[in-house]
Design a protein that fits this description.
Length: 369
């Protein structure tokens, strides 16, 4: 074969390789949106129906529609699987088949989703969880030390109870890592402090079930000295009022109405003592932004990304004047508003992750016009 003919064949092969690569690149960009710098994202919620989940989802939706993410997110599709792990697994399998660039997950189980999450990672999808975590190493868990939250809150309540007496527990959604970690840590503290746990009840992180739990406790026991609630402060207050019972020390999450009660003389003069901690609803919005940063800039993400959590003693609660963004930036942590539900979480604001999202946008999930 002549040297000239060999050179022609090499050149032809190179041209065919370029054409093949161009075709493959075109196919990939049409499914992922990477060609124009935009990405398709799926949100997998294991359950819905309580204030926290609603706020977290709304923050994710609004964050995707406002800069700096608006120009990067081509699509955000929300899936709700309910409390059955298999439903969530099936939905995530559909997301993988649909070739989303990132999947943001509130996992119903720390282990049941591991296999399908690994499938997503192997397909080149950025797999993120928020608040609750999974044990699959390739996932990126945006969360905080849930065991520490259980320990710190139980210690605070024990102090308010004088390290004696009886406590009841209103726990979260059974089976989740969040509920298991917080509850086990709290029980260990109560045992160490000599406080008796009379009973526990799954409040599902919602006011309705939490109120049912408290009513059940009040019907069964006349010697309750404290309430440790993952969520449910407002419902506990209502149950005590309805039963004509005096206020007792209460530990609950960041429900705005509960924080308002801890400042209100109508409650405090009647003996209400308490503390408030938070599982920040902005964790999902943070997970979304981290996923886009990873896709867009190649930012390396750790398996566990600890974002911390707020814990406020009663004298650390600071009222907002009007709940505007300017007001929120001042560091206030509860506000007066007739437009929010009893269980609305007051710690939705974070300067980095949700610093441009207004109260109305959190409530509605829609960007203000």
């Amino acid at each position: 074969m002549s040297r000239r003919r060999t050179s022609l064949l090499i050149a032809l092969a190179a041209c065919l390789l370029v054409l093949s690569s161009a075709c493959a690149g075109g196919s990939s960009s049409s499914s992922s949106g990477k060609a124009d710098g935009k990405y398709r994202v799926a949100l997998s919620m294991s359950y819905s129906g309580n204030d926290w989940q609603g706020e977290a989802a709304n923050l994710i939706k609004v964050a995707a529609k406002k800069e700096p993410l608006k120009s990067k997110v081509d699509e955000l599709k929300v899936f709700v699987a309910g409390t059955e792990a298999q439903n969530q697994i099936s939905q995530i399998q559909q997301m993988i088949s649909s070739k989303y660039d990132a999947i943001i997950i509130y996992p119903i189980s720390p282990t049941a989703l591991n296999s399908v999450i690994k499938q997503g990672c192997d397909s080149g999808i950025v797999m993120m969880t928020y608040d609750a975590s999974v044990t699959e190493p390739c996932a990126h868990n945006v969360t905080f030390d849930q065991k520490d939250a259980g320990k710190v809150t139980a210690e605070a309540l024990s102090d308010l109870m004088g390290n004696k007496g009886n406590v009841v527990l209103i726990t979260g959604v059974a089976g989740t890592s969040v509920d298991a970690d917080r509850t086990s840590a709290a029980k260990a503290v109560f045992k160490e402090r000599g406080i008796k746990v009379l009973d526990q009840c799954a409040g599902d992180w919602a006011q309705g079930p939490a109120g049912e739990c408290m009513n059940r406790f009040l019907a069964a026991f006349d010697d309750i000295d404290g309430v440790w609630a993952q969520v449910g402060g407002p419902a506990v207050l209502d149950a005590l009022d309805a039963a004509g019972k005096p206020y007792i020390p209460i530990l609950s999450e960041s429900e705005n109405r509960f924080r308002q009660a801890l400042l209100n003389p109508a409650y405090t003069k009647k003996g209400l003592k308490g503390a408030s901690y938070g599982s920040p609803p902005w964790q999902g919005a943070a997970a979304l932004q981290m996923a886009i940063d990873s896709l867009d800039n190649g930012t390396k993400l750790e398996s566990t990304i600890d974002v911390g959590y707020p814990f406020l003693k009663q004298d650390q609660i600071k009222p907002c004047k009007d709940g505007t963004l300017k007001d929120m930036k001042s560091g206030c942590n509860t506000f007066t508003s007739k437009d929010v539900s009893a269980g609305f979480m007051a710690d939705w604001y974070h300067e980095k992750w949700t610093g441009n999202i207004t109260l109305d946008e959190v409530r509605t999930g829609k960007v203000a016009s």
